[in-house]
Amino acid sequence: MNRLIWHLLFFSLMAVQSTFADVRMPNVFGSHMVLQRRKPVPVWGWADAGEKVTVTLNKQIKTVKAGKDGKWRITLDAMEAGGPYQMLVQGKKNTLTFDDVLAGEVWICSGQSNMEWPLSAAANAKTEIPTANFPNIRQLLVKKDLSLTPKDNIDGSWSVCTPETAPQFTAVGYFFAKQLQKELNVPIGLINTSWGGTHSETWTSREAMNQNDELKLVAAKLPATDEEVLKSGAARTQALMKEQQGGLPTAAEEQAWGGANLDDTNWKSMNMPGDWEWSGLPTLDGVVWFRQEIMIPEGSNLQKMTLNIESIADSDSTFINGQMVGSIKGGRPRAYAVPDGLLKPGRNVIAIRVADNGGSGGIMGRPEQFKLAGDGLSIPLAGKWKYRVASVFESSYKPGPNTYATQLFNAMLNPLIPYAIEGAIWYQGESNAGRAYQYRKTFPLMIQDWRQHWGYDFPFLFVQLASFNASNGDSRHGSGWAELREAQTMTLQLPNTGMAVTSDIGERTDIHPKNKLDVGNRLAAEAMRVAYHQPGEEGSDVSRGPMLDKMTVEGNKAVLTFRNGGSGLLVKDKYGYLKGFEIAGADKKFYYAKAAIQGNSIVVQADSVTIPVAVRYGWADDNGDVNLYNKENFPAVPFRTDTWKGITEAAKFEEH
Which residues does UniProt assign to the signal peptide (predicted)? Predict the structure, then answer.
């Protein structure tokens, strides 16, 4: 063989060798991870086609060859809790090493903002975090991502619970894990894949949606690729701008929008406070001006007035009668002092320039906190505001998590499958409350979808919506939140499910109640019952509150009996009064009722109802006055005995 041929052969072999790919694995695997005990443990990744891959862990050595597509998968034998171990994954060219690996219990933590809510923002964060040294509690925080097609990897890494890392843990998951570890004395791994403000459909696969007569119509309209999404986003935003009279302004034109005498008759209107993405500006990131005229009565004391805005997403410049009174970046409260003499009796104009860089945009907060206030004078500002878009940021063309269904399933759940887990805890529903009747089908569909993809009916535990005054809903006006809670209760018909009731620990004016300790502990109690079939810490097998069994009528009284009564019914009131009960006759008019515990039953009556037909308990958006428990201290499940038409029956899911 001459030298030229030899050199050509040598360099060809070197080129071939250099094309060998490293053995790779998805980021659900990493140092400090927790692997599920007592179940076979799938381990998978990528390599060259036909490449031999060897996995070593805790005296197990298993080998497999990658397929033609470069994918490989090994299933390790079930292990008891233990560790720390080292996992080695060896290919032809490289070896992956994962240190400090434990075997224990692994739980998915998912849903929207109340699951995403970090420990740093929980009620008892200041006392909890400094002592959060729990080396056997770990979290994999899945970073936010979107996709219209299933992905095979996530961005995220495992961390050990310490005072330095605990603030980033999901608060509900942290307290859940802490209680479980106390009960089981094994390592606990949390996979935190959650995103605030999301509906259940974005956590559901395209295949599952095609199994539902209503959702399959939505699935049929989904773009095929993420590239199509960007194109449609640009087209949608451009179409939105065409609807705006005059299009986008020049810089000089925009400067006049804060003035008192601007002609804004062609501007559109939307209610504020609120998220503009749900009020006519879907997916818009950019600058929007809001204007409102207010009339101030003659003789009003206009000295030392303050303009109060609870929050802005994300920054503002605020004008009164053409003069800027304040500008703040970030969501913190505004209390802008109004210079004396700027306001006057009669017509006044407030103009607010809002810039939003991503996610929700607009004037936020509680309606009652949005006002002009001074000594003896308070002018509410919540209501219709005129608006016009001043500029559109490029990020507007990208979808939000609710723009299309299936996106979070594809990007933040599918890459985790088939990582061995014990179960899932879920806190979501607020974003589906407007379609509560549909949730009766879409929520169980999502649960079954996840189980089908994992290949087994793992325990699925969820949190029922807490009390919150979303829109003053009650039995007289209808309540979407009550109907959503009912849909959640109906989902308990699925096997291996459990629910934590939280009506008693919500906050009337905050959709994010800070008490995550009781939420986590109640989920842990349900986990002990559903997943581990063990009695609770007190030796009782009761892990849930009283649930209505049946109603009978005796004269002018309704008699209610309950399941899950434990060792007896209990009212939490120093005077012994049961609250939250209402009763109605055939006219469907509900009246506040007197209710009393009699043995294992509750007797309900009202002077205005002579022949009871229906009883409701905790049937309102804000149902925080409920106070029926069992003696094991678990709150009763809100309910109604009637099936009268609700306010969300006709509401259906549509693409954002």
Answer: 1-21
CB atoms within 10 A of CB 606: 22
Give the C-alpha distances (Å, rounded to integers) separating 410 from 108, 207, 426, 436, 498: 16, 11, 18, 24, 26
- What's the pTM value of the predicted model, to 2 decimals? 0.83
Length of the chain: 656
Residue 44 CB partners (closer than 8 Å, separation 6+): 25, 26, 71, 72, 73, 74, 418
Left (φ > 0), alpha (ψ -120 to 50) or beta: where does 396 sit? alpha
Going by pLDDT thresholds of 50, 70 and 90, the confidence category of residue 5 is very low
DSSP state of 554: E
Complete domains list, the chain, with CATH: 239-396 (2.60.120.260)
Query: What are 604-634's pLDDT values in tens digits?
Result: 999 999 999 999 999 999 999 999 999 999 9
Residue 596's alpha-carbon distances to 321, 462, 580, 627, in angstroms, are 58, 30, 12, 12
What one-letter code names the amino acid at 465?
L
Give dist(CA 637, CA 639) in Å, integer. 6
CB neighbour list of residue 274: distance below 8 Å, 6 or more residues apart: 362, 363, 364
Q: Residue 651 — φ and ψ, nearest 5°?
A: -75, 130
User: CA nearest 497: which of 554, 447, 428?
Assistant: 447
Distance CA 28, CA 630 (A): 41
Phi/psi at 368 (5° precision)? -70, -15
User: Which of 118-132, 196-210, 211-225, 400-414 is predicted least confidently?
Assistant: 211-225
| Per-state percent for the chain, helix, strand, coil, to nearest 5 | 25, 35, 45
